Amino acid sequence: MMKTIKGIAASDGIAIAPAFRLVEPNLSFEQRTIDDPSQEIDRINAALEASKKELEIIKQKAEKNLGTEEAQVFEAHITILSDPEMIKQITTEIQDKLVNAEQALADVTDSYIQLFQAMDDNEYMKQRASDVADVTKRVMSHLLGVELPDPALIDHEVVIIAHDLTPSDTAQFDTNLVKGIVADLGGRTSHSAIMSRTLEIPAVVGSETATNDIKEDIMVIVDGLTGDVIVDPNDDQISEYRQKQTKYLEEKAEWQKLKTKQTTSADGKHPILAANIGTPKDMDGVLENGAEGIGLYRTEFLYMDSNELPSEDDQFKAYKEVVEKMGDKPVVIRTMDIGGDKKLPYLPLPEEMNPFLGYRAIRISLDKDDIFRTQLRALLRASSFGNLWIMFPMIATLNEFRSAKKIYEEEREKLINSGVKVGDIKLGIMIEIPAAAVLADKFAKEVDFMSIGTNDLIQYSMAADRGNECVSYLYQPYNPSILRLIKRVIDYCHLEGKIACMCGEMAGDQIAVPLLLGMGLDEFSMSATSILRTRSLIKDLDSKKMAELVNKVVNEAETNEQVRQMVIDAVPEIKD
Length: 576
Hints:
Layout: E1 3-6, E2 8-11, E3 14-21, H1 37-65, H2 68-81, H3 84-97, H4 101-117, H5 123-144, E4 158-162, H6 167-171, E5 178-183, H7 191-198, E6 203-205, H8 210-213, E7 219-223, E8 228-231, H9 235-256, E9 272-277, H10 283-288, E10 294-298, H11 300-304, H12 312-326, E11 330-334, H13 362-367, H14 369-382, E12 387-392, H15 398-417, E13 426-431, H16 434-438, H17 440-443, E14 449-452, H18 454-462, H19 480-495, E15 499-502, H20 512-519, E16 523-526, H21 531-538, H22 543-556, H23 560-570
Helix pairs in contact: 1-2, 1-3, 1-5, 2-5, 3-4, 4-5, 12-14, 14-15, 20-22
C-alpha cells in the first residue's frame, strides 16, 4: 500500500528502485543440548564454507570498487575462517559439551575476541578482535538461516534503507547499482549525507521510520530534492517521477556547461566556488566539477586512515599532490581536527562528558606540539608547489591563534634556514565557536582570512547537537541570530581587507547562497557535487539586490522559517 515518508533532503536527485534493507538482523539464539554431534559439526562446516564463498565475492567486488589494498581486509576474514585451530576448538566444544553449533561458535570466538582486546598495547591485535567479531556474525547468520545484508553483494539497482550509515558503509557502495539512500537518522551535515553528495547518490535522511515502514524489495522513490520517500508507488507516480528525474538530469547537463566558466553574478561579482575534500582521492570529483579552489582539506583523515601517526614525509606527499593538481588556485588545508566523534586508537584521549566541547582540534595541537610541528613542517614543504593556505580549527581566543602562529613561524624559520623552499602562505582560522565570531573585529586584524564552519557554528550557537534527532529542529541555518553572526564575520574581514570564506555545508545551500552573496562572501566551499548547481544559481543573482534582501532579513525576520520564505519570495531562480 502506497505511503509517503517525509525526511530531510540530503543529496539532490531522484531514485526509483527496489529497497535493499541494510539493517542488522536478529542473531540471538538459545543454547541447546544435542544428541548428534556429527550433525552439528556438519552444520558449522557448511556455514564456514558458505561464509568463505560469500567473502570471496565481496573481496572481488571490493578490489574492483575500492582497490586491492582496501580489499585485503576480506582476505584476512577468509584466513580466520580457514584457521584449523579455531575450527578444531569449535568441533571439540560440540563433541565434549554436546552443545549446538551456535553456542560452540560463540564460546570459541568470544574467547579469541577477549584475548585480542586485552592486548591494549598492540593495535594490530586489537583490530583482529574486530575482524573475528565480523566473521562470527557472518557464520552465525548462516547457522540461523538469517540473511546478513551486505552492500558488496548487491547485484542489481537498489535503494539502500538503513537506520544510520557510517562513512565506511557508504564508501563500499557501487554507484552503478546503489541509486538512492533512505536513513532513519541523520541531517544535511551528517557524515552519511556529505558522503552521499560526494558520490552523487540521491539521499533522504532523518526519516525516523524508514526501516519500520519499508520492506525488502518493495519499490521506492527517493526525492532528494524535497525529502519525500514514496513507498510502493503506483504506475502514475512512477511515471511522474521518471519525468522529474529526466528534468533533473537535463538541468545537470546544463550545469555541466559551466564547468570551465568563472563564477560570475549577474552584476559581475566573482566569488570563488571551492570544494571540501578529505583525501587526495577526492580530487577527481573536484576537477570534474570545476572547483576554483579547495576551501577545506580535512587532514584528520590522514590520521584516521593510519595505524600510527602519519610521518612528515607521508603528509608532505598528500598535501603536495593536492596543491600541485590545483595549480595556482587556493588550497585551504585545515590542521588536524581530532576529537569529538573523530578519535584515533593510537592517540588515547581522556573520557569526557562533552567531547565536542572538550579536548579537540587546536587544543590538542597546542598541547601536543610535537604532532603539530610535524604537520606544519609537511605543510610548509608542500607550500612551494602551489597556492597553500593553512587554517587552524576550533579557535576560541586570540591567544590560541597567536600561540599556533608562533609555532608555525618557528618551524618556517627552521626550514628556510636549512635551505628548504617555502611558499607564500596565508594563515587563517575557522570560525565555528560563537565567541570567535563575536570577536571577529579583533581576529580580522591578525589573520589573513577567516573561514566560517557553519556545521559547528550553528550547533554551538543553538546549543543543539546536530547528530541528536530529538533537537534536530534547532539546526537552523537561516535563523536570524546565525545570519547576524555570519554577517559580522564577513563585514569585519572586509573592513580589514581580509578574505571571508565559508566551508560549512551552508555554503552550497540554495536558500543560503543568495544571502551569502549579498553579504559579500568571497569564497563558498562545499561538496564538489554542489558547485555547478551553485554556479548556475549565482549567475542569475544580482549581488546588490541580494544585499538589500540581507538587510531586510537580518533587521525584520524573527524565525528560520520566515527567512526561508523571504528568500524564496525574492529569488524566483530557487526551485523550492
